[in-house]
């Protein structure tokens, strides 16, 4: 296999890595917000449930969560949900791994939503009471105060920790290969097994590095954009 | 007709009673200075007037209308509280400007959200207020680019933009370096007579003496003494007031 062929073969896998990355970010980031509000709820039950969920999700290895999501429908209901999706999509549309990828996306989204929720909560709780009170004495509603005064200050504060999580996320996508999803590392292992080529495995690092480089530039831009004020 | 009438306000935090029955009234355009030692309940009183704390007992009337009554549910749901707050303005010791907005935006934010006029009217009014507090040059600057004294003057303009019936100041110069207190006090002084009714909690005795129409000395949650500046400063009747005044003038 030529260098170009290997590159294209790995790129096929990296597309799956990027898919997991994008879906987790697009679904997990908004989902984190209601979880954060539940964790700060005045209703003790809601707060307790939310904290327990966050504790479990953050306390258990992500790889184990992927296994749980993937195998539990079969164990509990004797129905291999994700296996069925795999088969259905492959037979009807020629798409491979659809069920497995779905399981990975669910596990990743839940996991990252919980991490994000803790970042949001920290950000929201770090805004001083004086900001809310200044809004109240100006006759603003709670909603207006949150949207027009608090939100942007929170965003500014959570950009650095969110950047860390986002960079961790792209590397975490490699975990998908624990249920044989063909992300980039799985592809490289395939070459090692069938063609006795070990160097593509190391070559995958370049793909991650390039992507993290781009992410870093974008995230720094965002941070810079919010640096016009201090709070 | 009194613009503000307060009757028997009481407030406890847990088992400690902080305000033990405060009653007074203010005429339109009057300036009331509140003095008293630390922990006496001055901040708590202003917070009760602005409904950041809810008084346990007592009534608050504005323009002869009872807007809050500790004894019943009057004025206690979120919407009523919000509307009641509009009778009052509050300038905080720590300014609490909105850091992501520049000077002009800090002043226009609330009137815009409350739809107090067209964008142009609101902006013209804000510009006039910013000029009044002497910050026209800084109109596009952000709070982090201003000195404490300038920030506090913006906070005053922000409060004035809603044209409250009664404007309250909680130690507006206490967080400032001594050389910056003058500019803020000058601005507050300049507001007097524009029929803005003001309540100013302050440790600046000279200022209270010069600007206030009435001075109130609060100690341990009760009004020890209230009267004209000369009555309170020159002929205090209560022993506590005398002791407090002696101490504060000694310090200077
Ligand atoms: N939210 C609160 N919870 C419990 N106690 C409080 C609370 N707010 C104020 N207190 C107490 O109420 C008392 C009066 O406080 P307050 O801040 O009104 O005093 P002050 O006259 O403004 O004092 P200072 O001159 O130091 O500002 C203090 O003993 C304070 O500890
Ligand atoms: Mg105080």
What does this structure look like?
- The complex is a heterodimer of chains A (231) and B (252).
- Chain A is mainly α.
- Chain A has a single domain, classed as MetI-like fold (Orthogonal Bundle), CATH 1.10.3720.10.
- Helix content of chain A is 82%, strand content 0%.
- Chain A has 9 helices and no strands.
- In chain A, α1 crosses α5, α2 packs across α5 and α4 crosses α5.
- Chain A is globular.
- By secondary structure, chain B is of the alpha/beta class.
- Chain B folds into 2 domains: 172 residues, Rossmann fold, CATH 3.40.50; 66 residues, no CATH class.
- Chain B contains 9 helices and 10 strands.
- In chain B, the strands form 2 sheets. Chain B has a 6-stranded mixed sheet, sandwiched between helices. In chain B, strands 2-1-4-5 form a 4-stranded antiparallel sheet, with helices on one face.
- In chain B, α3 crosses α4, α3 packs parallel to α5 and α4 crosses α5.
- The mean pLDDT of chain B is 93.
- The chains are: A mainly alpha (231), B alpha/beta (252).
- Chains A and B meet through α6 and α7 of A and α2, β6 and α3 of B.
- Bound molecules: adenosine-5'-triphosphate and magnesium ion.
- Magnesium ion binds next to α1 of chain B.
Major sheet characteristics of chain B: 6 strands, mixed
Number of domains of chain B: 2
Question: What oligomerization state is this entry in?
Answer: heterodimer
Uncertain parts of chain B: none
The SSE order of chain A reads HHHHHHHHH
Q: Which percent bin holds the helix content of chain B?
A: 25-40%
- What is the helix/strand order of chain B? EEEHEEHEHHHEHEHEEHH
User: What is the third-level CATH name, the topology of the largest domain in chain B?
Assistant: Rossmann fold
User: Tell me, what's the shape of chain B?
Assistant: globular
Integer average pLDDT of chain B:
93
Q: Care to count the β-strands of chain B?
A: 10
Radius of gyration of chain A: 21 Å
For the terminal residues of chain A, how far apart are their CA atoms?
56 Å
Please tally the β strands of chain A and state the result. Answer: 0
The portion of residues assigned to helices of chain A is over 70%
């Amino acid at each position: 296999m030529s260098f170009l062929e290997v590159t294209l073969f790995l790129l096929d896998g990296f597309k799956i890595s990027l898919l997991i990355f994008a879906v987790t970010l697009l679904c997990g980031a908004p989902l984190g917000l209601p979880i954060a509000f539940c964790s700060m709820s005045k209703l003790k039950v809601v707060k307790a449930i939310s904290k327990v969920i966050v504790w479990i999700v953050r306390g258990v290895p992500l790889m184990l969560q992927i296994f749980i999501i993937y195998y539990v429908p079969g164990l509990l209901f004797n129905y291999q949900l994700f296996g069925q999706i795999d088969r259905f999509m492959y037979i009807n549309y020629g798409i491979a791994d659809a069920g497995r990828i779905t399981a990975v996306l669910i596990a990743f989204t839940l996991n990252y939503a919980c991490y994000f929720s803790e970042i949001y909560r920290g950000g929201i709780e770090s805004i001083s009471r004086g900001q809310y009170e200044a809004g109240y004495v100006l006759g603003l509603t709670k909603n207006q105060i949150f949207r027009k005064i608090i939100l942007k200050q929170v965003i500014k504060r959570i950009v650095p920790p969110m950047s860390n999580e986002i960079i961790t996320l792209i590397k975490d996508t490699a975990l998908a290969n624990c249920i044989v999803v063909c992300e980039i590392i799985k592809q490289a292992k395939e070459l090692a097994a069938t063609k006795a080529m070990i160097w593509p495995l190391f070559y995958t690092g370049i793909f991650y590095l390039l992507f993290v480089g781009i992410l870093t530039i974008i995230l720094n831009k965002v941070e810079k954009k919010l640096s016009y004020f201090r709070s | 007709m009194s613009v503000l009438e307060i009757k028997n306000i009481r407030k406890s935090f847990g088992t400690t009673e902080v305000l033990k029955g405060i009653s007074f009234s203010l005429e339109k355009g009057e300036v009331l200075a509140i003095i008293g030692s630390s922990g006496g309940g001055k901040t708590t009183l202003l917070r009760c007037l602005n409904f950041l704390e809810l008084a346990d007992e007592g009534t608050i009337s504005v323009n002869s209308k009872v807007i809050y009554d500790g004894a019943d549910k009057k004025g206690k749901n979120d919407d009523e509280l919000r509307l009641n707050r509009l009778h009052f303005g509050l300038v905080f010791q720590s300014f609490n400007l909105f850091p992501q907005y520049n000077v002009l935006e800090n002043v226009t934010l609330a009137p815009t959200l409350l739809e107090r006029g067209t964008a142009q009217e609101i902006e013209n009014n804000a510009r006039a207020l910013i000029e009044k507090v002497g910050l026209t040059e800084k109109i596009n600057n952000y709070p982090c680019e201003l000195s404490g004294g300038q920030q506090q003057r913006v906070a005053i303009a922000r409060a004035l933009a809603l044209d409250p019936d009664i404007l309250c100041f909680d130690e507006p110069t206490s967080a400032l370096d001594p050389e910056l207190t003058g500019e803020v006090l000058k601005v507050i002084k300049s507001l007097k007579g524009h029929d803005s009714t003001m309540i100013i909690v302050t440790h600046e005795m000279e200022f209270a003496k010069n600007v206030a129409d009435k001075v109130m000395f609060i100690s341990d949650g009760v009004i020890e003494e209230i009267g004209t500046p000369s009555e309170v400063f020159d002929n205090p009747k209560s022993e506590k007031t005398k002791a407090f005044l002696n101490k504060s003038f000694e310090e200077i």
